[in-house]
Design a protein that fits this description.
The chain is 31% helix and 20% strand. By secondary structure, it is α+β, with helices and mostly antiparallel strands. It has a ten-stranded mixed β-sheet, sandwiched between helices. Strands 5-4-6-7 form a four-stranded parallel β-sheet, sandwiched between helices. β10 (292-299) and β11 form a beta hairpin. α5 (112-132) packs parallel to α9 (201-209) and α7 packs across α8 (186-192). It is globular, with a radius of gyration of 24 Å.
């Protein structure tokens, strides 16, 4: 079976039950599908005084239209109120100030783990305290960080010797051993504590706030005001001058979604179907190289998304470089998903599609099948984005169309989720497009239907308001979610099934 087919571009649903291909067109003309806060967004902003002023200026800027250099491939942003039928005003801000001298004490620690932990604590402790204040009612926490935080609170980041105020007191190896077997002296255990957390400000802050169910939007100061951060040639280090409208679309849509709004959903998805993307991440804090965290991202036909944290265990095989759950853990994970689906939809799903980057083994699949029961059709789909196949068009300056699929068997095919889009008069790929390789490795379904579903799921990235993504949402954020779930020593009880918005 060899067949070359063109899958019709999926449409998404907006206000007044209207369908269009491009989320930006739909939001501009019809508005969002669902708005739960017509009175507007009440922002909690934690930043330096300088960061607050930059954010206020940004909110004023997005009140009116913002244009890109190219408004065909990247449509202009009409204004927040015009798009979402609500305000995001600088007048509705609850501000928590981060004193620059206090921040400096955290940032000038020689060890990156201690530096990041203390910096995150400075922000997180203040947000959590505000959460406990019954007089504070915040829809969204906007965390504005100086670029210095971004640059120095990342893995492998180094601090110039002349900036070091606090010397490191413990090595990573010693800290790792103390985390596994604590010492009798508490000061040594406290020195080791930061090493239980990932040295990444973004991931660690998200992880430490999960149990408080606080949606956050983390933004660098240079994103809000790139003209204030120049290189040696007097040019912006991060030049957004050509895509200011695109930036406004993405930040605004993410903020709207995180406050409980529903920008859009898939228009023609089948009822009773849910899609689950499996997440694996090696636990680098563990002495056992096999230990990994597993999780699942579930997306409903309504567009809602949930994340479930599974158990940490020996799921990684160093010899083959792949991940597999034990049957009991696979059963537990899919049951959590089904129970959440029942709570959200009022009934059980008819079909579950499990998306993963690697194939499922037979024992693992037995667990998934047992957890789903006899009345739910479970299908395992492997999706890989590195394939050796390319297709060129003769006598054309444009690459092949997005949505082209080459079906090479009853259960496998290649799907071009990027490529030329006539509506935009451009390609979504900067080079010759690479396809996704899709294979049904467990269970039964029609391969063309599976390819159609995957193409549709490229439309559900609420973190970037674009025509379509190159990956389905089930896999787009898999690495990011894995990074967050392993960024702090979280127990399963601290991370109940949570909305997708707390992770992006």
């Amino acid at each position: 079976m060899n067949e070359l087919v063109k899958i019709e571009e999926p449409k998404v649903l907006f206000g007044y039950n209207q369908k269009l291909e491009d989320p930006r067109d739909g939001l501009t003309i019809f508005g969002p599908l669902e708005n739960l806060r017509p009175y507007g967004i009440i922002s909690g902003v934690i930043s330096t005084k300088n960061g607050l002023e930059k954010f206020k200026k940004f909110l004023t800027e997005i009140e009116g239209p913002i244009y890109n250099r190219d408004n065909t491939s990247r449509p202009f942003f009409p204004g927040f109120n015009s798009v979402f039928k609500m305000e995001w005003s600088a007048k509705k801000i609850y501000h928590i100030n981060i004193d620059e001298s206090e921040l400096g004490k955290c940032l000038y620690h020689e060890d990156v783990h201690s530096r990041t932990y203390q910096t995150v604590s400075l922000f997180a402790d203040k947000i959590i305290a505000a959460k406990k204040d019954e007089h504070v009612d915040i829809n969204l926490w906007v965390v504005i960080i100086p670029d210095e935080v971004y640059e120095t609170c990342r893995p492998q980041s180094m601090l110039k010797k002349e900036l070091v105020i606090t010397k490191k007191t413990i090595t990573k190896t010693r800290a790792k051993n103390l985390l596994a077997e604590p010492a009798l002296w508490d000061d040594m255990n406290q020195a080791a504590k930061p090493f239980a957390f990932e040295a990444n400000f973004h991931n660690q802050l998200k992880a430490r706030l999960l149990k408080y169910t606080l949606p956050t939007q983390i933004i660098r100061e240079s994103t809000l005001s790139p003209g204030d951060y120049l290189n040696a040639f007097g040019l912006p280090k991060r030049d957004f001058s050509k895509i200011r409208g695109h930036l406004a679309w993405s930040i605004s849509t993410a903020a709207f979604y995180k406050t409980g709004g529903k920008p859009w959903k898939l228009a023609d998805i089948r009822n009773g179907v849910c899609y689950i993307g499996l997440v694996y991440k090696k636990d680098d804090r563990s002495i056992d190289p096999r230990n990994a965290c597993c999780a699942a991202q579930m997306f409903l036909d309504s567009g809602d998304g949930f994340v479930f944290k599974g158990a940490v265990g020996p799921w990684y095989n160093p010899k083959f470089g792949n991940f597999h759950l034990k049957p009991a853990q696979a059963e537990e994970l899919i049951r959590m998903a089904i129970d959440t689906y029942k709570t959200a939809e009022g009934t059980y799903p008819n079909e579950i599609f499990l998306h993963a980057k690697t194939k499922f083994d037979d024992k693992e699949w037995e667990g998934f099948k047992r957890g789903a029961g006899e009345n739910i059709n479970v299908v395992g789909v492997t999706i890989k984005d590195h394939t050796p196949i390319k297709i060129y068009r003769d006598n054309s300056k444009f690459p092949i169309l997005r949505g082209l699929a080459y079906i090479n068997g009853p259960s496998s095919g290649y799907l071009w989720s990027v490529g030329f889009v006539p509506r935009l008069d451009t390609s979504l790929a900067s080079e010759v497009p690479n396809p996704l390789y899709v294979e049904i490795t467990q269970g039964k379904s029609e391969i063309k239907q599976v390819l159609q579903d995957i193409l549709a799921l490229t439309k559900l990235n609420y973190n970037a308001c674009i025509y379509a993504d190159g990956k389905p949402v089930t896999l787009r954020f898999a690495d990011n979610i894995g990074d967050i779930l392993t960024a702090a020593p979280l127990n399963k009880s601290e991370v109940p099934p949570l909305s997708f918005k707390y992770y992006i």
